[in-house]
Q: What sequence folds into this?
């Protein structure tokens, strides 16, 4: 049996710094647990809310309202990176309203522990 050596991944929690020897899938889940957001989540979160089209403005605002007021109360449980709500924002931004709905519903359907990991939109 061949074991592949994983590169340690660093995480900072407050003033503490940890190096973890875990898979990408597990690291994203651990990082979200301690830091609230992964690096991919943070990159998406830093995008400006678009002013137009109006449907996209309202959709992004609704997603961010969910992230700030609902998701934080439910706990950071998403097993994917980026989280399902951040994925949804990118789906709407890059693929339009109807395809964004389709991609988001498909992602939510797959959001189970055994399916987690890195899940980028094309």
A:
């Amino acid at each position: 049996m061949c074991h592949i050596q994983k590169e340690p991944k660093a995480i900072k929690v407050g003033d503490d710094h940890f190096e973890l020897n875990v898979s990408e899938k597990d690291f994203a889940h651990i990082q979200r647990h301690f830091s609230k957001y992964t690096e991919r989540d943070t990159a998406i979160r830093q995008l400006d809310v678009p002013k137009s089209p109006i449907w996209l403005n309202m959709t992004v605002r609704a997603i961010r309202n969910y992230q700030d007021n609902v998701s934080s109360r439910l706990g950071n449980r998403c097993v994917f990176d980026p989280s399902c709500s951040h994925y949804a924002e990118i789906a709407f931004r890059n693929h339009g309203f109807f395809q964004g709905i389709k991609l988001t519903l498909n992602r939510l359907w797959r959001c189970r522990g055994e399916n987690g990991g890195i899940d980028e939109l094309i």
Remarks:
- Residues 39-118 form one domain.
